[in-house]
Structures are given as C-alpha cells and as structure tokens.
C-alpha cells in the first residue's frame, strides 16, 4: 500500500450539467452518499461545475476544508480534466490531486431511462474516484524543449498552405510529397467553383512560393518511413525514392559543375518505353522518364524504375555536360527532427467500377468527374476538347450522376457519407459544357443539390438559368448501345413520380471519395485514430478539428473528412497555427505518468526492458546488482512494463497498482478494504 | 438460471485513447445500455496486470472487461498486443480454478465506435447474467 503520510481530506463536487446529469439521476442522493465515504470532508453540488462560480466553489472549499484531494463528478476527464486541474491548482493543491468521476458521458447519457440504476452507478463511480483520490500524490509535469522545425506530409493545396504558413512564421518546414511534383489533386482540376478560376492559375503561384521559400525544404518523391518520439521531439525517417535524375545541387555535389536536370525533356524524347500517365488518369502516355505535366514543381524528370529497361538512351541524350541521369541510384534514407507534424495526405476516388449498374470501365463513354476535369482542361490529353472516348465525337447530351457511391448504404464500394464537393463540381461541369459546346445539354441526376458554401447557392441558380436539366432521382441502371456506344440512363423522376429513360452521348459519374490506401500505414506510424468511415480522426469534431489525440500531430484537408478547397485551405491554416504554437513556446509539458523503479523490489530480471516499445528502460548496476532504470524522456507512461513486472517493482505514476487496486476494491468491496 | 432482478457486478479497465473515448462517444450519441458495468480508466490495456483481474474476481466480481484499441492502433504501439497475450494466460488460470473464462472478456473498441461500445456493454452484461453470480462472490458474503 502507498504510504499514507497525511489523513485524506477529500472534497466531492457534483455537477448537474443543467439537466444532462440531474435529469437522469438523483444528485441529492449521490451527494449524501459521498459524505458517508471515508476521507470525504465536504460534498457540494452545482448547476455547472465548469463555470466560473462552479470552479470557485472548488477553489474556496480547498482552502476552507484544508482539502488534499478533489473529486469532480461530471462529464468526461477527456473533456474537462484540464479545467478542473487548474481549479485544483488555484486552490493551492498540486494539480494531480484531482480525480474525475464520469457520471455524464458514461452514466446519465447512456442510462437516461433508468433513474435507480444510474443513481446507483453514480454512487459507485464517486466511491471509486474517492478511493483513488485518497491515494493521489503530488507530481510535477516534465517540461521538454521543442525542436524548432515542423513536418508537413502531402503537398496538395492543404499541405502547401500549411507549409507556407509555418515557414512564414519562421519555422523550418519539411514538406514531404510522395509524387514527383507538388500540387496534388487541385493541379488536376480545370476550373474551381463557384468563381470559375482556372485551378492551375491560382495554384501555381503557391507552388512557386513553396519552391522558393527559404524556410521550406521541399522533398518530393519522398515517403515517410518511420516516426519516433513525441511532441517537440519527433525523429522522422524519410525514404527518398530513387529518382534516377540529379538536381543541379546534387550534380554539383558530385563535381559536375553546371550540370543536373534543367527540365529540357531531351531524355523523354528518346525513351522507348511508353506507359499511361497517372496524372492524366491513364488517358495520355508518358515515357519511363517523365514529368507529370508542364507546370511541375520542381521541374525535374523522374525515372520510373518499374518500367525502365535501362537502355541508356536517355543518359546519352542528356549529354556529358549535364550528366543529370544516373540509372544506378537507389533509395536513400534521411532523418529529420521536428517538433510537430501536419498530415495532409488527401484522398482517392472510390473504385466506382464496383457499382456495376453504371458500367464504368465497361462502357467507353462512362467517365468519372476527375477524368472529365482532365478532358475539359486545356493542358489535358485532348487540349481541352471534350470528346467521347469511344469515337472522339463531341457529345451533346451529357448525363451527370451525382452521389455516385456517396450517401449510399448498399455496401460494397459505396460510402454512406456525403463527399461534399461533387454537387458543386457537377454544376461547374454543366456550366463548362454549355460554355464550350454550342447546343450541348447537361442532365443532372441528383438526390439533393448541396450548395452550402459562400456564393454556392447563387451558382446553382445560375446553372439552372443557363439551361441545365435537373432530374431528381437516383440512376438505377445504365445500358450501352453496342453500335452507337450511346448510353441509356434509367431513373425515376421522383418529383413527377414516374420512371424515366434518357439516351445520353456520355455519362459523368460524380464518384464518391475515400481515404488513400496508404493512409492506414501513415496513421498507424503517427499514432492517429480513424473515424468509422476511415478518415483520420480529429481530437474533437467541433472544438479541436485540426488536432489529433497524439499531441503534436495535426490534420489538414480531406484526409480528415471530405471538404472542398476553401475548407481545406482554412483547415490547413488552422493546423499550421496549432502546430506552430508549441514550437514558438519552445517547450511542452508532458504529463508525468512515467514509470519508476522501486529499487528494493527490483530483482533485475530485465523482462520489462524488452517489453518497452520505446526503449526507455535499461538494466544498470547499482550496489553490486542489476536494477532497472527509466529514461523519463523516452517513457510515455503506457504502463506495459508495470502491468508485467513479476515483482511489482515498477510504479506507474498516477496509475499505480495500489491506486488501481483501491479502485477495484472500492467498487467490489464497497470501500471495505482501505 | 439467474434471478431476473439480479444485477451482476462487472468491472472494466479501459484504455484512455480508444475505448474510453468510444464510451464517451456512446454517451454523446445517447446510446442506451445496461448500467451494470463500472469502468476504470487506464492509459493503456498494456497496464493491466493479471493480478488486477485476479484481485477483481477474488473481491467478488461476476465479470470483467478489458477494452483497448484495435491491433495496430495502440497509442503506445503495442500495449494491446501485450495485454491480449496476457488474457490467454489469465483465462487459463480462471478455468483451472473453476471459473468460467467467459466471465473475462477483452474487446477492441476504437474512439469512433460508440455504437460498438453499446453493443459490447449489452453483450457482456448478457453473458454474465447467463453465467449467474460468480462462485467466488459467495465468499464475500
């Protein structure tokens, strides 16, 4: 048992939370019961304990009753533990002399119609919390310095914005992108709604800024390999994939003065290998040595070693002066140390061919919204001329299937959530074809048009007035005419209440979006949870949308949930601001839940050393025998060692074995064994 | 078998990052479940000493739940694996001392699985109610 140096003097403070708690259980009974518990000298109740008067009650009671432990029975410690710890501190106690009983989230809200059961559970919860409070000890948070650098993963518009903000705030920022160029999804788009700005035109200045900023170290064609450490001190291992092409700087390091890739493209001209260009979604060819598109940043060719046959023609074409191509390079690894990280890893379209009824990949003239973007884009494979993939003809009647796989509970590849930007880009597509193709009519098959943003609804009206046809109904089936390759769309016009079939020249599926396949690996490396729908989980959906449960890791953009460009940029700026705070403060306080070795009990078996996932434990010789020693800077306080130690020699601060046993006893023995 | 009105004593040790957050989410979503389980918050299921479980059963618990993150999601990388391994050991011990090992359960509920937490609560209570009072609880009387 822990040493009881002082008599416990506990105050119990019970919150009504309006009617959230008081509406489902008897506060009065719980309060009376609390007074009977050993060590409790005062019990109070209040409407809102977290309010200023509520907190004053705690602060005053600590002084008045000379308390040495505080129990608040209210909401979840995940919400208000920090609040009440500060109140405890203001009252003159060590802030770890505080314990919370979660009688709202895990009681009154989940037992709303069981007054007796909820009241009895609340009494037990208070008793358990008081049992722990009796054994709490003073702890001092550990302060660690924060590395004056940040990492941003993903260089789409969100990642670029976050990196620019961090860098402009004077922080060294590593911007890591797995593709050979920055720009992300936005660089694939033609125009952006509702302003109809050319996407590249507004993006490329940002791309140039990113490339130029003295505080941004841009690392394209690079992936995160490993993450170690904690807020303030992350060590990130990066895999720089073998690019086969040297930058001017790399060339100079090899002693080739004035060499390195200048983006002339002579190599790609002679390359005999032809592959589909993923940037154009396979609709245009690229060589084995390639750039995605003319506006890439950095302007640097890349060798695709999966398809390169190492014929060496490119090396010859590049010439002796530049000597930019080296086909024998291998992946290299680099470690960077950063204080905080932002994940902006983006999204993919769902494999919409899984919705067989719409015939994507079976019918030539069924394409996705992203393919439409490339086809209508002046820098795209057709030079901006929208044509039917089957015969190169210009389509006149184009169907747009909205919610293609979104808001769909049928399972398979379909997603129950709204992908949020498909309505708006389909409206924009409708506008673009009416603008570019005289006499073309867009038919939008929709469930609801969700035009929720600034000037979005106005844009919707504009497209309606321009002559787009809106049919409210989900497309049940699409059939292809084998000779003309025209498509018949079957649906129900739910406003008229009648089935409908329409012949279209082309159908565009506004496919749902989903997290990238590599998101799973990245999130596990960074210790970020995922939501039920697979997107990365924010710390709080409303009050902490950029943070995660792992301190020092922040989220920006669609990887956290579907959002359009303005929202992505806004979140990126929020994440950059949040990520810069610990860096600018220069130090962070870690909760002192470290393991401690009780050396008299330690037998030096060393089992714990191998259990620790962070290598925080070592055996050292003291007084002629081996005992375990904890490196506090590495210990994160999980307690895996403490859960195993056969001798009970490891003390997990704030979650000690006597404390947990006291909680178990308090519940089961009604506090009988003190 | 067991009395309809009998309320089992079930104790849960749940990890701060996944299951505790999942339980809070169930609250936010007002998912209703039976009030028989009392949860103790730990930082990680890796912290769960087998002796805590033995102590709980010795003290007369009718059932016990350990709930943590999904494999691969552990906030501390692998604490839940370590805990899951210990579960096999403890379940064996329980069997050997004549307790039905279904009284001890380990589940994996993430921070976004409020609905699953509700289902786990229902199911644990149902299982323990089927098994009836723990034979060891008789000693507590």
Task: Explain how this protein is built.
The complex is a heterodimer of chains A (674) and B (141). Chain A has 674 residues and is α/β, with parallel strands linked by helices. Chain A has 5 domains: 10-139, Rossmann fold; 149-241 and 335-346 and 516-585, 3-Layer(bba) Sandwich (FAD/NAD(P)-binding domain), CATH 3.50.50.60; 248-330, no CATH class; 349-514, FAD/NAD(P)-binding domain (3-Layer(bba) Sandwich), CATH 3.50.50.60; 595-653, Alpha-Beta Plaits (2-Layer Sandwich), CATH 3.30.70. Chain A has 17 helices and 34 strands. Chain A has a 5-stranded parallel sheet with strand order 10-7-6-18-29. In chain A, a hairpin with a 6-residue loop joins β24 (477-480) and β25. The longest helix of chain A is centred in the C-terminal third of the chain and has 21 residues, at 565-585. Chain A is globular. Chain A starts with 9 loop residues before the first strand and ends in a 6-residue tail after the last helix. Chain B is α/β, with parallel strands linked by helices and 141 residues long. Helix content of chain B is 39%, strand content 16%. Chain B contains 4 helices and 4 strands. Chain B has helices spanning 19-28, 50-58, 79-96, 114-131, and strands spanning 10-15, 37-42, 63-68, 104-108.
Q: What topology does this entry show?
A:
The complex is a heterodimer of chains A (674) and B (141).
Chain A (H helix, E strand, L loop, with lengths): L9 E6 L11 H9 L4 E7 L5 H13 L4 E6 L2 H14 L7 E5 L1 H5 L6 H19 L8 E4 L3 E5 L3 H12 L3 E5 L14 E2 L4 E2 H14 L3 E4 L2 E9 L2 E8 L7 H6 L12 H5 L3 E3 L8 E3 L1 E2 L11 E2 L9 H10 L9 E7 L1 E4 L3 E3 L16 E3 H8 L20 E8 L17 H15 L4 E6 L9 H11 L2 E4 L4 E4 L6 E7 L4 E7 L1 E6 L1 E3 L3 H8 L26 E3 L9 H21 L1 E4 L4 E3 L9 H5 L5 E6 L2 E6 L19 E3 L4 H12 L6
Parallel strand pairs in A: 1-2, 1-3, 3-4, 6-7, 6-18, 7-10, 18-29, 20-27, 21-22, 21-27, 22-23
Antiparallel strand pairs in A: 5-30, 8-9, 11-12, 12-17, 13-14, 15-16, 19-28, 24-25, 25-26, 31-34, 32-33
Chain B lengths: L9 E6 L3 H10 L8 E6 L7 H9 L4 E6 L10 H18 L7 E5 L5 H18 L10
Parallel strand pairs in B: 1-2, 1-3, 3-4
């Amino acid at each position: 048992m822990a040493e009881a140096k002082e008599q416990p003097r506990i105050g119990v403070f019970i919150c009504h939370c309006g009617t959230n708690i008081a509406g489902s259980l008897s506060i009065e009974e719980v309060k009376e019961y609390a007074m009977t518990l050993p060590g409790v000298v005062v019990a109070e109740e209040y409407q809102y304990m977290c309010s200023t008067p509520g907190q004053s009650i705690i602060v005053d009671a600590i002084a008045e009753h000379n308390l040495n432990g505080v129990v608040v029975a209210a909401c979840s410690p995940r919400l208000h533990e920090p609040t009440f710890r500060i109140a405890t501190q203001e009252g003159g106690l060590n802030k770890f002399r505080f314990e919370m009983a979660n009688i709202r989230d895990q009681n009154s809200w989940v037992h709303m119609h069981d007054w007796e059961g909820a009241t009895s559970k609340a009494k037990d919860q208070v008793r358990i919390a008081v049992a722990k409070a009796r054994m709490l000890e003073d702890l001092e948070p550990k302060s660690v310095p924060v590395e004056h650098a940040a990492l941003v993963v993903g260089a789409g518009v969100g990642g670029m914005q976050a990196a620019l903000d961090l860098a402009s705030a004077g922080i060294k920022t590593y911007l890591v992108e797995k593709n050979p160029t920055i720009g992300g999804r936005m660089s694939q788009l033609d125009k952006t709604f509702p302003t109809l700005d050319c996407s590249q035109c507004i993006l490329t200045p940002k791309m140039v800024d990113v490339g130029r900023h003295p505080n941004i170290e841009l690392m394209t064609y690079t992936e995160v390999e490993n993450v170690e450490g904690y807020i303030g001190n992350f060590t990130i291992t990066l895999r720089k994939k073998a690019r086969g092409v040297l930058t001017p700087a790399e060339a100079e390091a090899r002693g080739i003065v004035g060499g390195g890739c200048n983006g002339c493209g002579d190599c790609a001209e002679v390359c005999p290998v032809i592959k589909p260009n993923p940037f154009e979604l396979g609709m245009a060819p690229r060589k084995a040595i390639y750039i995605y598109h003319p506006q890439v940043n950095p302007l640097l060719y890349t060798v695709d070693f999966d398809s390169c046959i190492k014929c060496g023609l490119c090396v010859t074409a590049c010439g002796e002066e530049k000597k930019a191509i080296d086909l024998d390079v291998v992946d290299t690894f680099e470690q960077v140390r950063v204080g905080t990280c932002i994940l902006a890893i983006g999204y993919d379209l769902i494999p919409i061919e899984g919705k067989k009824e719409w015939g994507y990949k079976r019918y030539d003239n069924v394409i996705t919204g992203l393919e439409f973007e490339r086809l209508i884009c002046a820098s795209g494979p057709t030079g901006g001329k929208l044509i039917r993939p089957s015969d190169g003809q210009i389509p006149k009647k184009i169907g747009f299937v909205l919610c293609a796989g979104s808001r769909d509970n049928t399972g398979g590849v379909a997603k129950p959530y709204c992908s949020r930007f498909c309505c708006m880009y389909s409206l924009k597509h409708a506008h673009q074809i009416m603008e570019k193709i005289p006499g073309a009519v867009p038919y939008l098959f929709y469930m609801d048009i969700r035009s929720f943003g600034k000037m979005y609804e106005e844009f919707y009206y504009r497209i309606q007035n321009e002559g787009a046809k809106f049919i409210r109904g989900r497309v049940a089936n699409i059939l292809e005419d084998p000779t003309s390759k025209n498509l018949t769309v079957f649906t129900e016009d739910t406003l008229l209440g009648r089935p409908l079939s329409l012949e279209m020249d082309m159908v565009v599926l506004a496919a749902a979006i989903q997290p990238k396949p590599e998101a799973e690996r990245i999130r596990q490396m960074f210790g970020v949870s995922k939501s039920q729908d697979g997107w990365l989980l924010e710390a709080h959906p409303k009050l902490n949308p950029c943070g995660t449960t792992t301190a020092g890791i922040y989220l920006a953009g669609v990887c956290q949930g579907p959002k359009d460009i303005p929202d992505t940029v806004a979140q990126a700026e929020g994440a950059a601001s949040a990520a810069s705070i610990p860096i600018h403060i220069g130090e962070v306080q870690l909760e002192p839940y470290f393991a401690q070795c009780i050396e008299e009990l330690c037998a030096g078996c060393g089992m714990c050393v191998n259990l620790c996932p962070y290598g925080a434990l070592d055996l050292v010789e003291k007084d002629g025998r081996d005992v375990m020693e904890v490196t506090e800077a590495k210990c994160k306080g999980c307690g895996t060692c403490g859960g195993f130690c056969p001798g009970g020699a490891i003390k997990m601060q704030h979650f000690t074995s006597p404390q947990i046993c006291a909680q178990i006893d308090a519940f089961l023995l009604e506090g009988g064994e003190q | 078998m067991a009395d309809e009105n009998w309320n089992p004593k079930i104790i849960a040790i749940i990890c701060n990052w996944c299951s505790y957050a999942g339980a809070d989410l169930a609250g936010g979503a007002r998912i209703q479940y039976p009030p028989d389980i009392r949860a103790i918050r730990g930082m990680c299921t890796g912290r769960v000493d087998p002796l805590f479980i033995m102590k709980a059963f010795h003290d007369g618990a009718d059932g016990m739940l350990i709930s943590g993150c999904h494999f691969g999601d552990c906030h501390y990388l692998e604490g839940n694996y370590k805990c899951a391994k210990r579960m096999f050991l403890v379940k064996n011990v329980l069997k050997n001392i004549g307790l039905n090992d279904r009284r001890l359960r380990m589940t994996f509920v993430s921070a976004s699985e409020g609905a699953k937490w509700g289902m786990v609560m229902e199911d644990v209570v149902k299982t323990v109610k089927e098994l009836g009072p723990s034979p060891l609880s008789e000693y507590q009387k």
